[in-house]
Write a structure and sequence with these properties.
Layout lengths: L2 H21 L5 H40 L1
Length: 69
């Protein structure tokens, strides 16, 4: 399977899973678990973005310091 096909298949699977979870009652344990997982993924993505930003700032500062010498 090529990458495009894999991406499409994964996207369809994610959408189908999201629809299935959205159709469950709000008090469902599956829905609560899915919400916790989504929150965790969001937190991890934010942490990763912050680390990348911090590293980019550090590298830019070092380059600036080197150029000032």
């Amino acid at each position: 399977m090529n990458m495009k096909g894999l991406g499409i298949a994964m996207g369809v699977g994610v959408v189908a899973g999201a629809v299935a979870i959205m159709m469950t009652p709000r008090s469902s344990s599956a829905r609560k678990l899915a919400n916790k997982a989504a929150d965790k993924v969001e937190d991890m993505a934010a942490m990763a973005a912050n680390k990348v930003e911090d590293m980019a700032t550090m590298v830019a500062d070092k380059i600036e310091d080197t150029l000032d010498m």
